[in-house]
């Protein structure tokens, strides 16, 4: 495995932004650079989650949503928050329920709907994974100075607000 990484690192880096030329619009260059960085980090996190905890990133993400809402979330709300179909949420929930990490509870305000909650075992498992996950992210971004991180957070927050404003107009 280390030999493969060494070989990959020796080759010129090819990513989503590598096909750009000076003629491309600066916004497109920025978009592809952000996407490229996101994909690299996400792929590394996926690999580490599977190797260390035997869990997929979507399952981790669903548990992360539920960790923020101890009273649980409806399936539709999970779908919206994770930006995936209801069918995907159902499949992930089924798997986590079989492992006793989450449970479905009838929504008291609408008996046709279910909320999903972390079980105590699910909360403990997620807490362990989240602690390790945070360390991975810190490791992957250790080459970025604290000042640069702050600046990037500010810039991306501004960009997100502009994108929200555009979405409201549509």
UniProtKB/TrEMBL annotation:
PANTHER family: HTH-TYPE TRANSCRIPTIONAL REPRESSOR YETL (PTHR33164:SF43), TRANSCRIPTIONAL REGULATOR, MARR FAMILY (PTHR33164). GO terms for biological process: response to stress. InterPro entries: HTH_MarR-typ, MarR/SlyA-like, WH-like_DNA-bd_sf, WH_DNA-bd_sf. GO terms for molecular function: DNA-binding transcription factor activity. It comes from Janthinobacterium lividum. Pfam families: MarR. Gene3D superfamilies: Winged helix-like DNA-binding domain superfamily/Winged helix DNA-binding domain (1.10.10.10). Residues 25-161 form the HTH marR-type domain. This is MarR family transcriptional regulator.
